[in-house]
Structure formats: C-alpha cells, structure tokens
Design brief:
heterodimer; A: mainly beta; four-stranded antiparallel sheet; 1 helix; globular; disordered C terminus; B: mainly alpha; 7 helices; 10% strand; elongated
C-alpha cells in the first residue's frame, strides 16, 4: 500500500514538473467601438496606456463592446465573434524562451477567404491592436492581450 | 477628402511634426489609401537609398583606397620651395627690386632668431618631428574610424533577439493584408516599451 502511495506521489510530482509547452495560454480580446463624435470613454479603457496616445486619442468616444477571455494552444485556434459579423481567430504558434508567445491572428469573412493573416510576437501582458474596420458609424479597435505582464508563461 | 500636404507628409515621415499634427496625419492616413501609398513610397525610397549606400560601401576596399591616397600624396611632386623662391626673386628683381630686399632682410633676421632657438633647444627637434608624425597618423586613423562609424550607422537593425533590451517588446513579424491595404506602426508607451498596431484601411 505504501509503495502504491509513493508511486502515486511520484506520478503527481512528474505531472507538475511537465514543461510549460504542454499547458494552455490564457489571454483576452477587447472589442472597442471608437467614434469621432463626442461621447464618453469607457472607464475600463482608461488604464490602457496605448489608447490614450495617437492615433487612438483622436477618437472622442470609446465604448467597450465586449471582453472575450481566450485560451490558446498549439492544437486549436480560439475564435472570437466580432460585432461586424466577422470572426477573429488566434492560434498559438510558439512559446518563446524569453516568455513571449508567437501567435497567428486572422480575421475571417463569412463569404471570403482570410484577408488578414497576421503573424506576431507578443510580450506577455502587453496588448497589441488590430484596428480600422468600420462598424456602426465608428471604427473597431481590437486589443489582444496574451499571458501575464510578468513575462512568464501563464498557466 | 483633403490629402496631407507634401511638406506635412515629409515632416511626419521624419518625425518632425508636433504631436497634435502627427495625430491628425495618422488619422488621415488610417483612412486614405492614396496618402498611405505616398508614405509607403517615401519608405521604399529611403530603403532603396540605404540599401544602395550599403551596397556601395560593401564593395569599397577602404584599406586599399587609403593606401592609394597615401601613395599618391607621396609620389606627387610639385615645384619645390627653392624653385618657387627662385622664380619669385627673379620676377621681382626684374619689376620691383625693393620688393625683394625688404623681405630678404626680415627673412635674415628671422633665420638668425630661428638658429638661436634651435641651438637653445638642441636635441628636441627630432622628438618634435616624431610627435608631429605620430599626430598625423592618429588624425588619419580617426578619419578612417569616422568613415567606418558613418557606415555602421547605415547598417540594418539587429536581428531578432540580438538586443536583450528589446526581448520583452511586442513586435509584428509578418503581415499580409491580402486585397486590402493597411499600416503597421508602434505606439510608444510611458515605460519605454511599445505596442504594435495593425491598421486596416477599409475604403
């Protein structure tokens, strides 16, 4: 019995010591509608430094339409439905030794092929933005944040 | 739609616009394919100039070139001081003799003073010449180093991961806009980091 418990403990310890590449990476997609017309800026967006700088600060109003938590893995892409009927697809390509994650991002249109394949390397926790799509009288600003700011692979 | 003026676009490209003007230009660029094409043309032109400068520089053997220059300065023989003085004295004696004797007197006095100075500092003349020669070599080396530094400034940026300071920065590796056009730029953040932005132009 003691031997079985020891074996189980060793097995659990081995699972815990598996490399980070076997784990999923968490992230978040922010969908913002920015307009040049006067209006409020969502308080949740104010801590995002990049949105307070040019060219984003020329928009007079910003509405946070949705926040989508995503879980990325090499095996399957994460898909986020956008308010303009398109979908954003993110796939983890590589976990880099420095803590960053290389991901591929594409925006699909239902009736056409992917028109924006985008390969990017992202610092953990620092969002990057895909903007410019027109929607509801404004411009969609999509912020993609992968991992945590510590630069370590998130679990 | 009123397009960005050529001067303003040039200043924006060189990063010389005030923040408010730059934002305005950025906003226009985000929605104007024509101005974006002009900006891309500027970027390509600069890249071509940089590339051609690098190619030319890479084909030049600077050591051989400086060697030839040095050899040329040694072998080029012009009229000597004695020849020039002789010619000047001959011509002056023919036209205005006083023009010769007055400076000759001064020259004699100066020569006497020079001889006295040399005698008083005997032994230091050789060292002085060596010092002058050494300074000349140093000046030449500095010139070569300056040229090399100028070339180094035109070298392409370091490869990915070469600079450890940038290891945590976000960067766009590859973008394909397909049938659309777009722009990739970076927003500088307060902590010195930067955030990439991919802007799709939907005309």
């Amino acid at each position: 019995m003691l031997a079985r418990i020891a074996a189980l403990a060793v097995f659990i310890a081995t699972l815990g010591a598996l490399p980070a590449s076997a784990e999923d990476v968490k992230g978040e997609v922010l969908v913002v509608l920015a307009k040049e017309a006067d209006g409020p800026v969502d308080p949740k967006l104010k801590p995002i430094d990049a949105l307070q700088k040019p060219p984003f600060n020329s928009f007079k109003s910003m509405e946070l339409l949705a926040t989508h938590p995503v879980t990325l893995s090499e095996a399957a892409p994460a898909t986020v439905a956008l308010p303009n009927g398109r979908s954003l697809q993110i796939k983890l390509v590589e976990r880099m030794a420095d803590g960053r994650h290389k991901v591929s991002v594409s925006i699909n249109r239902p009736d056409k092929q992917d028109y924006l394949p985008l390969l990017t390397v992202i610092a953990s926790g620092e969002p990057f933005f895909v903007a410019g799509q027109k929607h509801a009288g404004g411009t969609l600003v999509i912020g993609v944040q992968i991992g945590s700011k510590s630069g370590k692979h998130s679990k | 739609m009123e397009h960005v003026q050529e001067d303003a676009l040039n200043m924006h490209f060189d990063g010389e616009l005030a923040p408010a003007e730059a934002a305005s230009v950025e906003r226009h660029l985000a929605s104007c394919g024509e101005c974006n094409k002009r900006l891309v043309s500027m970027q390509r032109l600069r890249e071509m100039i940089t590339m051609s400068a690098e190619q030319v520089a890479s084909q030049v053997d600077f050591d051989a070139m400086f060697g030839r220059v040095e050899q040329g300065t040694k072998t080029a023989v012009g009229p000597g001081l004695i020849e020039r003085l002789t010619l000047w004295v001959t011509e002056s004696l023919q036209h205005n003799p006083m023009r010769v004797w007055a400076p000759a007197g001064g020259l004699a006095l100066a020569a006497a003073a020079a001889v006295a100075f040399v005698l008083s500092s005997a032994g230091s003349g050789v060292e002085g010449e060596e010092e002058m020669a050494r300074r000349g070599v140093i000046a030449e080396e500095r010139e070569i180093k300056r040229e090399k530094m100028m070339l180094a400034e035109n070298q392409p940026p370091k490869s990915e991961g070469a600079d450890s300071e940038e290891s945590n920065a976000s960067e766009v590796v590859q973008v394909d806009f397909g049938s659309n056009t777009g722009t990739v730029f970076e927003i500088a953040l307060a902590d010195g980091a930067s955030t990439p932005v991919v802007w799709i132009n939907e005309d």
